[in-house]
């Protein structure tokens, strides 16, 4: 068994980035060379220099939507719901504050609309049934808020005008996330154009990020932790690009843990990779053998989080925690609006 405490580290609160930098691509970037165990301090603007002609960069084009709905019960009691995944016809998986007080079948009023509690599950999860799919989208667009991670402080915990623009990647396209794929926040349209001019192809995947990305692992041993299911899609075109890249000696460079998990959730057999859509609960921990990802761009993650464990699996725990200690001493900015780490 592997203790969760092995993935803990000390982080001064003042290093948690509360606001994005004025320009997306002005973040610092730490470079970790796995083979030499060398740590280099740099800037994200140098990211294209670490790519090679023939590489494929994989981005997650999921889009954060106003998934946080504030509602009320018939009694007047307040209810907060975070919509996580839509199943069609107005049915949504949701995380609901104070779910224990709600009854199955009870109606919750959101603005000028409503939904009822169809099912209650453990951990604050439930199924909410809206009148229709169209109605659920209308309510989120009119009354919903962009959900922010709990470590970003805003009055009333509500995203402001700047967050609505910056807590979203420039390539966000597929609506469905309640959290941003934060490694992608550093990119500008100009950076992507420059990368492609270097002879690097850009491939797309979708993994809709759920609230589990915010939570530290509570189990004493990581083997006892269960990942939340997240919807993902890797199109045939992306699979073809990856196979061509591998066959020609190029590298697959994943932007973020979400792109990594989407790619590693694919089935690979006899040198063939199959396109796939569905749900993934893939929990990548030290000892995992990566099938497709050769390099990774990521942010600095929460202590004891599944994201930190994934990074430790990719670059070895001791090396990663040494890099994190270096980041603290050099005052890197941490978490969603923070700086980047490139692992090659």
UniProtKB/TrEMBL annotation:
<dbReference type="GO" id="GO:0005737">
    <property type="term" value="C:cytoplasm"/>
</dbReference>
<dbReference type="InterPro" id="IPR036100">
    <property type="entry name" value="QueA_sf"/>
</dbReference>
<keyword id="KW-0671">Queuosine biosynthesis</keyword>
<comment type="subunit">
    <text>Monomer.</text>
</comment>
<dbReference type="GO" id="GO:0008616">
    <property type="term" value="P:tRNA queuosine(34) biosynthetic process"/>
</dbReference>
<keyword id="KW-0949">S-adenosyl-L-methionine</keyword>
<keyword id="KW-0328">Glycosyltransferase</keyword>
<protein>
    <submittedName>
        <fullName>S-adenosylmethionine:tRNA ribosyltransferase-isomerase</fullName>
        <ecNumber>2.4.99.17</ecNumber>
    </submittedName>
</protein>
<keyword id="KW-0413">Isomerase</keyword>
<dbReference type="InterPro" id="IPR042118">
    <property type="entry name" value="QueA_dom1"/>
</dbReference>
<dbReference type="GO" id="GO:0051075">
    <property type="term" value="F:S-adenosylmethionine:tRNA ribosyltransferase-isomerase activity"/>
</dbReference>
<dbReference type="InterPro" id="IPR003699">
    <property type="entry name" value="QueA"/>
</dbReference>
<dbReference type="InterPro" id="IPR042119">
    <property type="entry name" value="QueA_dom2"/>
</dbReference>
<dbReference type="Pfam" id="PF02547">
    <property type="entry name" value="Queuosine_synth"/>
</dbReference>
<keyword id="KW-0963">Cytoplasm</keyword>
<keyword id="KW-0808">Transferase</keyword>
